Amino acid sequence: MYALVAFFTTVAVFSFSKAQSDPCRMLIELGLCLAYFPSWGYEQSTGQCVEFIYGGCQGNLNRFYSKEECEATSTILSTAQQARLPEMLAKEAFGYYELLNELFHAKVAALLLTAQVITATAVVLPWRR
Questions:
Q1: Where in the sequence is the signal peptide annotated (predicted)?
Q2: Per-residue CA distances from 10 to 6, 16, 38, 67 (Å)
Q3: pLDDT per residue as tens digits for the range 104-123
Q4: Which of 53, 76, 99 is the last residue of a domain?
Q5: CATH at 4
Q6: What is the pTM of this model?
Q7: Range of the domain at 115
């Protein structure tokens, strides 16, 4: 029983610490000082990187020097993106289906052509049997 409690406690602590160390799950903090550092942060509600002015003191890891750096770090899907995910996956799956269908038909056409060449060769050159 104690081992089970210890296990779940460890899992809970690890999950919490993982969420706290992921910059994209943190709120954008402007900082308490009055400096003026243009920065970028990931806004979870919109699922996009937004520009903000960092004051220079405290803050957190959700602060990047460029939009590209922010987008490269942040891989969380917004609610709107999550809602469109089944549609996006269906389109991608259909694209793979079309590709496989084309490859299959190309392979069948190649096999039929090979069979026709073999048949024509057998008809034209009957003495080679």
A1: 1-19
A2: 6, 10, 39, 35
A3: 777 777 777 777 766 666 65
A4: 76
A5: 4.10.410.10
A6: 0.47
A7: 82-129
